[in-house]
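To close the chapter, one final illustration. This time we ask the reader to focus less on the individual chains and more on the assembly as a whole: which components sit near each other, and how the overall shape emerges from the parts.
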Amino acid sequence: MLRKYERFLTWETLLFVLLVVIVGINALQTPFYLRLENQINLFQLSIEKIIVALIMTFIIINAEIDLSVASIMGLAACTTSYLWLHKVPMEWCVLGGLLSGVAAGLFNGFMVARVGLPSLVVTLAGMIGFRGLARVLLEDRSVGEFPAWFNNLGQQPILGPFPLALIIFFILLVIAIIILQYSGFGRLVYVIGNNKDVARFSGVKVEQVKMTLYIASGFVAALAGLLYTSRLGAVRGDTALGFELDVITMVLLGGVSIFGGSGSIWGVLLSILIILNLRNGMGLANISGNTQTGVIGVLLILSVFLPNIAREVRNFWNRRMYVHRSHTQTTEDTKGG
Amino acid sequence: MEKQTPVFQMKHISKRFDTTQALDDVSMDLYPGEIHALLGENGAGKSTLIKIMTGIYSPDEGDLLLDGKTIRLNSSVEAQDFGIAAIYQEPMVFPDLNVAENIFITHRSRGLLMNWGKLYEDAEAILAKLGVKLDVRMPARGLTLAAQQTVEIAKAISLKVRVLIMDEPTASLSAHEVRQLFKLTYSLRDQGVSILFISHRMEEIFEIADRVTVFRDGKHISTRPRAEVTQESCIQDMVGRKVEDFFVKNSSPRSDLFLSAHGLGRKGVFEGLNFDVFRGEVLGFAGLVGSGRTNVGLALFGIEPADSGEIKVNGKLEIVRSPEQALKLGIAYMTEDRRQIGLTMTMSITSNISLPMLLRQYLTRMGLVKHKAETITANQFRERLNIRTTNVEQQVGRLSGGNQQKVMLSKWLNARPQLLILDEPTRGIDVGAKAEVHQLINELAAQGLSIIMISSDMPEVLAMSDRILVMREGRQMAIFNRSEATQKKVLTAAMGAVPHFEVDDEKESEMEKPA
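The assembled structure is written out below.
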């Protein structure tokens, strides 16, 4: 009887309940809350981080980390602006920006997958190094006055009420779900995250998978950096500074294990929705940004803490069930494992 | 053994974990100066008993009595204070401390300043009492596994041990080291220590034990003096059913050559290996732990590629540099280390079995996983190898050791290799599962699969192999035909009693007994 419900006692369920509660409270607070414009707006304010969170999910499930994503966003934005300052046509500037991200990802991937250095150190160095490079490119300048078509991409809706960044997010979300949850590559990401020696001893090309992930991470971060540029219409050396921690928070809150091997895009999607709605709701209730950040921090601690409690509860049910069963059928044989 | 009062008694001990009754009304007496063997399949409750005896778990019901008085143990420190200690398969020494420091590590009241002179003197005295020569100033890091175990035993003695539990102490030792451990054990017994000895190796138990107790499914089945037990009666008690002689070997006729190695070597690890593997043959790799057998396996599988010599597969010269490549050539390697490099413990049986073939066999054209096909494969193997589980989506980590071993076998059989290298295929699994694995190896060989079986279990190597290659310190010492191989010959070669043996280039070096 109880075992039927036990299945649903997962982290994702808890997140879903939390999301419903938050949205419910917000909707009661203000009638505008559930309007499409508000929902789009709420996505739009963090859209770049959300996009990067998708690829970060892959990397953390793979038992690695990429701390350099925000610096790559900055680097891509600054590379694009630098080229624009030097009278390169904007299309080529965008391409240059994306390529800078791919190059940065290639560097991370080479150091982690080939050389075998710990990703925490490599990408910490990348975080400092790529940011430094971005600042060298622009020095103290703030670059703006991009072509109108470029700014419009970030600021105007292009399909119904939806702006480009949101559409890109949805496309990437579907791709991420298919690849991570249903494809062979996704399976390898999980296996390597669980135990990369098992993967290697099974003939899996571990290097190749890690390399692919870091290059993809560099590319996606660069794309996010450019979307950010077009939304703000201006770039400085410190563009997207500190975004990496928000991104990692979204992923971990979504139930992805920091040790790799478990978690899902679904959980991360729920955690993104929770963070967005929580911040928006608190904003509507005039709660300051600093307090909002504090609340997110508490949530993150709970995300590590609660699954353990959930497990205890499950064990408790199991024990109860056993007692129940052994009363009814006394001589049931239970073999030890 | 004269009748005395037992030093340690367990009366009606029960312990339950969640839904598992690990121990069910178990009673046992241990007498001073006896070696008491404890036998049972995996999951029979042996480990739980040890943990209760050493104060790690407390029993749900029942009493522990020391010298007839009830005691309560709340921690392993308290157990040590009562003179109850345990040593395990993997010794737990501090690698950077020296031998003497390791021996006295648990002594808490040795004053503010170390009296090094006395420490070394005391350590030497204890080792002398055991009849062991070890440099007490040597860091434990440099010691062999067997020597580390000796240090653990010395540590137990320094604590005035009265009851010593030895949990599979011989599992990682070579035959020679097992001898020495037995000598030590006898000397402890003669000093009046009561020893609870746990091992999966039947012949060891018959050699060393004074009494034999068998557990099954958490219950005490029998306790008898050694003279009254036979191997058959023990197995009967353990599995509760008749097990036929589990070493049946239908010698397979040699047909055509699959792989041959000439002068194979890897710098600093092994050198000069010359051997052939024929289709349908089991080539046993015997030798002491650390003789380089596993490294040869890893070289053939491309994990640690060979850097000299050559490998011919089907008569064609091949250089194996990676596992992917080895798999394409039809070579698979099943590790001895199930937990660390064999299986992903938190993933399902299905995804573990399909892993080596995932990209070649279980993907749609779009690159998506064919989950149905995977599940079908897993269920086929579950039936064929008798993997005991309710569901193939079960996490591998929740299976018993024997069933995990079968999942690992399934994983590699599914890759349809032509040569399967099995590294310690039956280590740490219970007799029932072991017999099933042996049966399977015979069947596979009969179907034409070549098998290299690396094993430290001498009876297993002798019984299962068509030919036996013996290694010692990275060198090939001999290849014996099944008919000529005896335990004595193999051991002699493995332990290097042949001082200047030159490796013969012939395919079958007929090895004569040393002068």
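Strands of chain A lie at 157-159, 162-163. The first strand of chain A starts at residue 157 and ends at 159. With these observations in hand, you are ready for the problems at the end of the chapter.
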